[in-house]
Amino acid sequence: MLSWALAADDELEIGAMDLDICGPSLPKMLGCEKETLHESNLGWSPVYVADNLGMMSIQFMLPDEDAAVIWRGQKKSALIKQFLKDVDWGKLDYLVIDTPPGTTDEHLSVSTYLKETGIDGALLVTTPQEVALLDVRKEVDFCRKAGIKILGLVENMSGFVCPNCGGKSRIFKPTTGGGEQLSKDLGIKFLGSVPLDPRIGKSCDSGQCFLDQYPDSPASDAILDVVDALRDEIEGEATI
Amino acid sequence: MLSWALAADDELEIGAMDLDICGPSLPKMLGCEKETLHESNLGWSPVYVADNLGMMSIQFMLPDEDAAVIWRGQKKSALIKQFLKDVDWGKLDYLVIDTPPGTTDEHLSVSTYLKETGIDGALLVTTPQEVALLDVRKEVDFCRKAGIKILGLVENMSGFVCPNCGGKSRIFKPTTGGGEQLSKDLGIKFLGSVPLDPRIGKSCDSGQCFLDQYPDSPASDAILDVVDALRDEIEGEATI
């Protein structure tokens, strides 16, 4: 979703890298899960879902869509290294890296390999439940220990508007104030909340761009606001 | 939730083991995240949340609730071995093992270590979205390759009843028929669907038993039906 939103700006070149080796979902969401990889003498070419949006995922290497990748950490780390080294990304303005939840091999590898080129920072995404916030607290601790700047926190699935009566209900009730309160507690920037819209899930399932399909929905507004806040955060940093 | 439901039968001894080393949430959900471990000459004692429900999680070993466990796969595997070998579980009727999503170190280790004692099987949980079903297909492939019997599939967050108007809406619309259709396609047993009830999240966040708090809710009925179907599946197997 972030990749689509960044790619909406034609002048930017975006790369999206799916590090969820054992459960890749980015290709499905970007509507390119049937693609396979092409190799040139410059290395693997990313799969282009738009003129300025290329992506890479292990999904493209699987013989069959449902096949499981049963790999331990070391093997996953080796593949991540290849994704960074052997893929012909071209010149990119942004490389969006989607990691699985947690603080393990994938996170350690990517932060180590990218240490030299530099990472702008990490965008943390949560849902309002206390059990999800618990994981975010651990990820904050990880970023701080690994020296990765935290760009901010986004709260997803923040509220639900009933299509029958228009009444708003909070499906996942934040017992302790949700993402916004957590950001305050931990001293990180709160970039906004995205409401739960059943059409987002539908767009993801069919691999279409929700922002193009429903440009006037409150969720689209919220997503674009988050992306603006994020770009400010990254570019503000770059000009200093 | 499954552990609570099984433990509702006083005559059973239940153990719950949280294998999500980098994002343990079971202690929070069972309301015991502040506990620490005790060691006797028989090994570590599980933390008892009810007379017949003991549990084990790395959370109990952390110096502070928000600390991240930044470990690669090998270290996680070593801890999982200790959880099985060095914990004084006593005599158990059921050991419920909660794994993180995916098909990696945790899954390989636990299936290897338990090969000799035997695993009754795996209960797969999904939500209705196509991207979640994709992961389940991979887990089915894993279980088949690892020789683990699949007890069945449960669909969670299946529908939402608006508290204002009582209208039922499907928040996560299953574009391809959801969990039930997938079960048919893959030849596995469909054990039932649990509707999305905001109070479930609230109970999990506060560490209370949803089944005790709202025994008459449709979600509680659904959960107990799933557990009955699951016990039939396991015990039916045992008597053959």
UniProtKB/TrEMBL annotation, chains A, B:
It comes from Brettanomyces naardenensis. Transmembrane segments: none annotated. Pfam families: ParA (PF10609). GO terms for molecular function: ATP binding; ATP-dependent FeS chaperone activity; iron-sulfur cluster binding; metal ion binding. GO terms for cellular component: cytosol. GO terms for biological process: iron-sulfur cluster assembly. Gene3D superfamilies: P-loop containing nucleotide triphosphate hydrolases. The lineage of its organism: Eukaryota, Fungi, Dikarya, Ascomycota, Saccharomycotina. Keywords: ATP-binding, Iron, Iron-sulfur, Metal-binding, Nucleotide-binding. This is DEKNAAC103052. The keyword Protein biosynthesis does not apply. The keyword Cell inner membrane does not apply.
